[in-house]
Amino acid sequence: MRLRLAQLMHQHHNLLILDEPTNHLDLEAKEVMEEALSEFPGTIIAVSHDRYFLDKLFPVTYWLKHETIERFDEGYSTAREKSMNSLKQIE
């Protein structure tokens, strides 16, 4: 995994699309991936259930709900809180 990630980082891509990238990784491998991704100069689109990973690496969060896209200029946890608060106000 580390070798493949290192190869990808040196191929001059400007977009990475990741689907559950931390699944089945041990803590050390997650840390290596997080460090490598934090140095990636391009755009990263990721889908993950790993809240820590999302909060650590992604300053912008998009919610897909009811066939619309909502943008939050903050990490996952803050975006989730704002989204939940906006749902409570509707009720």
Model description:
The chain has 91 residues and is α+β, with helices and mostly antiparallel strands. 46% of the residues lie in helices and 22% in strands. The protein contains four helices and four strands; from the N terminus they run H-E-H-E-H-E-E-H. It has helices at residues 2-9, 27-38, 51-57, 76-90; strands spanning 15-19, 43-47, 61-65, 68-72. The protein has a two-stranded parallel ribbon with strand order 1-2. Helix 1 (2-9) packs parallel to helix 2 (27-38). The radius of gyration is 15 Å and the shape is elongated.
Question: What is this entry, summarized?
Answer:
This protein has four helices and four strands, in the order αβαβαββα. By secondary structure, it is an alpha+beta fold. Strand 3 and strand 4 (68-72) form a beta hairpin.
List the helices and strands and how they pair.
Blueprint: H1 2-9, E1 15-19, H2 27-38, E2 43-47, H3 51-57, E3 61-65, E4 68-72, H4 76-90
Parallel strand pairs: 1-2
Antiparallel strand pairs: 3-4
Q: Based on CA inertia axes, which overall geometry fits?
A: elongated
Q: Give the termini separation.
A: 46 Å
User: Measured on Cα atoms, how large is the radius of gyration?
Assistant: 15 Å
Number of strands: 4
Count of separate DSSP helical elements: 4
For the sheet with most strands, the description reads: 2 strands, parallel
Measured by DSSP, the beta-strand proportion falls in: 15-25%
Q: Could you spell the SSE succession in H and E letters?
A: HEHEHEEH
Please bin the fraction of helical residues.
Answer: 40-55%
Uncertain spans: none
Q: Looking across the biggest beta sheet, what order are the strands in?
A: 1-2
Question: Strand pairing plus helix content: what structural class?
Answer: alpha+beta
Average of the residue pLDDT scores: 86
